[in-house]
Amino acid sequence: MKILSAEQIREADRYTIQNRPIASIDLMEAAASAWVETFLQSLLYSHRKSIIIVCGPGNNGGDGLAIARMLKPLNNVTVYLMPSDNYSPDNLANQQRLRESGIQPLLLHTTDILTLPPDAVLIDALYGSGLNRPLTGLSADIVRKINASGVPVAAVDLPSGMFADSNDHNTLHTIVKASLTITFHLPKLALLMMPTGELAGEIKIVNIGLDSSFIDQQESPHHLQDADSVKVLYRPRSLWMHKGQAGRGLLIGGIGHTAGAVLLASSAALRSGIGLLYTACGLRAAQALPVHRPEAIALDLNETDLPDLVSSLEPDAIAIGPGLGTSQASAELLNEILEYPIPTVLDADALNLIAKHRWLHRLGPNHLITPHPKEALRLFGQAKPFEFHQNLLKFSQSSKTVIAFKGRFTRIYTPEGIVWFNNSGNHGMATAGSGDVLTGVLLALLAAGYPVAQAARLGVWLHGAAGDAALLRLNSPESLIAGDIINHLHQAFHQLSSST
Ligand SMILES: NC(=O)C1=CN([C@@H]2O[C@H](COP(=O)(O)OP(=O)(O)OC[C@H]3O[C@@H](n4cnc5c(N)ncnc54)[C@H](O)[C@@H]3O)[C@@H](O)[C@H]2O)[C@H](O)CC1
Ligand SMILES: [K+]
């Protein structure tokens, strides 16, 4: 699914009104009705004694007024409206319709009149994608009062005060903090990125009937990746396959006391279809691996000459980093690995070493790096979130390296300038070893011959989907551990191969 800019969404809106054709007030009615349908199914709505709706002067406010009219028969609704000399025409039309339905909106001349009972839910329809500058004055005061109240908020399209695209020049304390954001038709970039994404709470996208051929024609570097968009990448195994064709992988890490990381990555690679797995690690891990995962071939790095090993094994793919440490010996191993033109996943301490030794310029088209935010900061330096995002995009394009920047919506930056925001996974996966599991999955997919960018997209999705299956089973994000992700990889693969 494409992620369009606020400007492109406005165009899609205009195009739909002209070409469908549909009157703009009817499009607003459709949007409000889709919003209400989703809202009524949400946990946020259930058990709330009253509904407060705060409406702005533009079309976002117009949506709010229409929503108020639709919710009136179902609950106790109070509507507040920002005073303005410049209401949008559809806002004015909905003010009229609201009055006719028997609700008189209260004019929000001052925050004093805004009452926020703790058992209410607040619907935030102050500003949406038409925001043109950070909120100040009365609007900012209203937002601050809402945020201080503790009343749960459901936002219409966007939490008010948030720009749909970059918020690098915005102030976070003038953005509504929502528990639920029901956004229209397409995801917005700011909902998928930190720190703004966190202010949106749970995100739901509702179809409002914008013209799909127009959207298809729009160019955008940003896409949301779901099961359907990765299914097309998946290549089922041939019935006649033998293990030599499933790929050989070499995993390097687990030096010193950190054996667990390579054990997890090894298990994950094996559960992701690798044909042969060689795990080159420290003595402790080399002793533990056969007990924990006898399917892997454990090699003690102290007794192994890496160039010899690589030339005799001829691995299809390499992964280096989990439990690697940042010692001089580890740096030498990495220095060697960076020379091979073999598809390679670089994770954890491999990334820290690249940052430490300033080896970023050595990365190329055979490399897939999987930094979490702190590792990415060490590699690419500090920048504001949107600027940081653009720096990653530029780096991927110029070096041809694929980046999986890990987070709530892990972003896969590909050398052709496309960024995929992955939509599988959950908060239970923020746990020790989760990244090591991803490294193992990616190693298996690279070894199977997937091109680097495809392996990254597929692997990140599978990892998230396995986490989702684990959460469904365990019902507790706190109790989910990395091993559970491995134990549910089969369900993620099954989803890819099933037709529905
Ligand atoms: N295509 C769709 O997705 C549809 C969207 N709808 C809704 O319309 C809004 C966008 O409406 P728009 O009128 O363009 O903008 P807003 O309501 O967000 O606000 C514009 C309004 O506010 C003024 N303004 C802007 N920034 C500030 C500021 N910092 N301080 C004070 N005032 C500000 C501006 O001048 C305007 O007067 C979209 O989000 C959806 O909710 C349609 O209903 C259906 C189709
Ligand atoms: K809003």
From TrEMBL:
Start and end residues of each YjeF N-terminal domain: 9-216
UniProt binding sites for K(+): 60, 124, 160
Biological source species: Schleiferia thermophila
The keyword Acetylation appears for this protein: no
Positions that bind AMP: 406-410, 435
UniProt cross-references to PROSITE patterns, sorted A to Z: YJEF_C_2, YJEF_C_3, YJEF_N
UniProt binding sites for (6S)-NADPHX: 59-63, 128-134, 157, 261, 323, 372, 436
Enzyme Commission no: 4.2.1.136, 5.1.99.6
Source species taxonomy: Bacteria, Pseudomonadati, Bacteroidota, Flavobacteriia, Flavobacteriales
YjeF C-terminal domain ranges (all copies): 226-496
Molecular-function annotations in GO: ADP-dependent NAD(P)H-hydrate dehydratase activity; ATP binding; metal ion binding; NAD(P)HX epimerase activity
The name this protein goes by in its record: Bifunctional NAD(P)H-hydrate repair enzyme
